[in-house]
Amino acid sequence: MSDKATAFAPASIGNVGVGFDMLGLALGGGAGDRVTAARSGTPGISIEEVRGLDGEIHPYLSTDPKQNTASIAAQALWHAAGAPGGASLTVRKGVPLQSGMGSSAASAVAAVVAVNALLDDPLELAELLPYALEGEQFASGGLHADNVAPSLLGGLVLCPTVLLPDVVRLPVPAGVSAVLVHPELQVNTAHARRGLARGYSMEQWLQQQGYLAGFIAACNAGDVDLIGRTLRDVIIEPQRAAAVSCFDSVKEAALRAGALGCSLSGSGPSIFALCRERDAINMASAMAQACLAHGIACQSWVSPLDAEGARLED
Ligand code: HSE
Known about the structure:
Blueprint: E1 4-10, E2 12-14, E3 23-26, E4 32-40, E5 44-51, H1 69-81, E6 86-92, H2 103-116, H3 129-140, H4 148-153, E7 156-158, E8 168-170, E9 176-183, H5 189-194, H6 202-221, H7 224-230, H8 237-240, H9 247-256, E10 261-264, E11 271-276, H10 280-292, E12 298-304, E13 311-313
Parallel strand pairs: 5-6
Antiparallel strand pairs: 1-4, 1-13, 2-3, 3-7, 4-6, 7-8, 9-11, 9-12, 10-11
Helix pairs in contact: 1-2, 1-3, 2-3, 6-7, 9-10
């Protein structure tokens, strides 16, 4: 039993374009949140401090344990385990806020993984999912595991709400990379979710089901060309794209550079593309150039499709 543990949880690509709320991909390349949990005399979960990557106190995130996804998730686990006493969290935010990179999920996941290590009887990684989801639900106002599941387990995860808490880790084809560009804009996920239409036509439903089924079959078969024919979103992307002024140009640049598909990451503003590994560096540069041409600064990451999920650190 430890008195202190630190965990890292990576950023993630929610929806992966084709599977709204039910498909998520862990992002490798170093973007992620780090949480240290230390036993404390105060009962329950408290937050010592939240800092950004620059080491400074985070200007926006609260240390009120009822307002932070890390503490909400950790408290749910601590309570369910009936653990005595309390733990205090130190959160180091590496994922930009409201970026579409699974920022709230990364904090919640890192927190439950760190706090789990303080328990007498720690749970398996996959068993932590429902607790991390409690934190995520607070932030996004909806129950969806497409950021929490890949951040926790790594790789590409199918996680429809109807199957939770079970999720399915999908195989990924060799030689394919993910590229993510984060334009320096912000989109509030809860707000973006409230703005979505409630009704869709049978035609849209059939099309999107076809793409999702085809994409999953492509991953199972390692069929890269089929990924290129199925990585499409005819329902959500058209409703959200206008909120990201550079989206059309970045997508066009990605497709011109040979992307298999390109869409918003989660609710945006980040934009991701899947591409052949050999094209990834040029792809990142083409997408970033298109973003900069709109006068919007950005950061980019290149990731394998089987990036590692959350882990304890020394
Ligand atoms: N599936 C969620 C959404 C992901 O698109 O609203 C948010 O990052």
